[in-house]
Amino acid sequence: MNALIRFVTVTLVAWALGSYAETADLVIVGGKVITVEAAAPEAEAIAVRDGRIVAVGDRAEVDAWRGENTIVIDLEGRVAVPGFIEGHGHFLSLGRSRMILDLNDVESWDEIVDLVGAAAEASEPGAWIQGRGWHQEKWREVPDDVVDGVPRHDSLSAVSPENPVLLGHASGHAAFANERALARAGISVETDDPAGGTIVRDSTGRATGLLPETAATLVSRVLAAELATRSEAQRATEFARQVELAGEEALAHGVTSFHDAGVAFAAVDRMIELDAQGCLPVRLYVMLSEGNEALARNLERYRRIGDFLTIRSIKRVIDGALGSHGAWLLAPYADMPESTGLATISPDVLAETARLADLHGFQLATHAIGDRGNREVLDVYEDAFDTDVDDRRWRIEHAQHLHPDDVVRFAELDVIASMQAIHAASDAPWVLRRLGPERAESGAYLWRSLLDAGVVVTNGSDVPVEPISPIDSLYAAIVRNDREGNPFFPGEAMTRAEAIESYTLSNAYAAFEEDQKGSIAVGKLADVAILDRDITSVSTDEIAATAVDMTIVDGVVRFVREGQFPAIEAVARCQW
After folding, report:
1. Which of 199, 270, 424, 486 is least crowded, fewest Cβ atoms below 10 Å from its Cβ?
2. Can you give the pLDDT at residue 23?
3. Selecting from 3.40.50.10490, 3.40.50.10540, 3.40.190.10, 3.20.20.140, what CATH number does the domain 86-90+231-559 have?
4. Across 296-410, where does the E strand assignment appear?
5. Dist CA 450 CA 401 (whole Å)
6. Cα separations in angstroms, 331 against 198, 325, 370, 373, 501
């Protein structure tokens, strides 16, 4: 018996030292670990095996997991955080944005005309020219002949007479078309405005080219129909390239999971194919974006929960964007008193979506930016919650401008405020113009008010509306300045800990995944971002300069910033 006890004791000690136990595939040591775990918010090291975290603690604890083949990442003073979760973005649009004209940084209409003109010269006659990212509020100057703040199409059409042109607004809630594109879509002085959209016209009734909200689909569906005539191989190749490019961009910014806010069934089918091939570069949480009839036919067969592809949410859009005067307001715009914005669908339509969501076990996530839009969504949700369904975790996407009375309703109804802090920094100048100072102060981007009321507030970028940079959004949430560095109602700012949680554990909760990701804890998925500095202690100015040096997904290094960790090579999930 004594011999047996001695054998068992030696065996247990050896196991603790790692000689008998399964050793770790990967250990991370030599820096600080921000765990986002309330019980132990900081640690020194992490051990990973088979894509899961098996140890978190001090270095001695984790060193016990080291074996002959264990990969050791020495942080050399860097900081490890949970892999960032993009709480609201558009994955395929991110990839596509790298394949068309990038207009995010243009500073004038003339610059857009020059870029389109150059593209037309390089294109075959009849070929579509696409771009996105322009925003008239960012321009240094605008021509004299503007309508609704945007020029007429004449100068753009002059440099692209043989090519239809469609340029998406940065908000995603408007587009601009040249004369050839308008003609392809059959838009003339006789064309009626579609429901939920406006064909902007000059004093003669002629379309200027600006197409807010659903009016943009008059042209985009023609483009889509023409692109659909390509071969299946061409379409599949383009789709895979969009996924590859989006994945590269996400991983370079420490994003390991991505809430894809609005995907059609056809695109989801391709995602399913890539997932089966092991070719999704980051974990996708997909919101289906279809009409009620299509949802009723298909929801049951699309619901799935997986490691890299989960489909259990529905995305609807009840209003537009504030920048394009499309957000649905309770009172008229300060700078357009004849308008209160647009309802892109009726509350009755949303109520039917809510019924379908409950019937098939789906989360409902509704885009609402204006205070009227948010109130209408809360009303629909409240009516739906009379039914006996547990743990819905329904969301309002953006929740940018609220009537103060509705803050408590988010809390009472347990509705998640899925917000994007970076929008406050970008939008601040025109928020004041659109709403006036009083309504802006009482209702715009109420992060602090919502958090204090007990609401789950998540974070994201709405990429490609904004760059896919968690650091930019964290800085915006903490500092609460506009792009020029001016304070923008700083009383609504988040603490550093709240901001980090909004991009990690809160986003995991918003996808029913808090047991799998969002913090660094034993048993969770080994998704980790490594930063070059400690964002919890550096000066606020330094937060903005923080770089992502490495991204780990499923315990495998997927991105290494150039010049960092020279002994470690990133490995792609799929050989494209």
Report:
1. 486
2. 95
3. 3.20.20.140
4. 309-317, 363-368, 395-398
5. 12
6. 20, 12, 10, 12, 34
SS (H, E, C) 258-271: EEEEEECHHHHHHH
- The token pair that represents 267 in the structure block: 């695109």
Residues in the chain, pLDDT under 50: 1-20
Residue 471 has a pLDDT of: 98
The reported pLDDT for the residue numbered 21 is 55
Output the CA–CA distances (angstroms, integers) from residue 349 to 17, 317, 355, 360, 377, in the order listed: 61, 11, 10, 17, 11
User: 243-253: string of b/e by CB count within 10 Å (b at 16+)?
Assistant: bbbbbbbbbbb
Q: What is the pLDDT of residue 542?
A: 97
Cα dist from 96 to 311, 395, 452, 464, 545, whole Å: 21, 26, 38, 9, 27
Check residue 1 and give its pLDDT.
Answer: 37
Q: What is the domain partition of the chain in residue ranges?
A: 86-90+231-559, 104-169+174-212
Q: What's the CA gap between 173 and 384, in Å, rounded?
A: 28
Sign for the pseudo-dihedral over CA of 249, 253, 256, 262: negative
pLDDT given for residue 324 in this prediction: 83
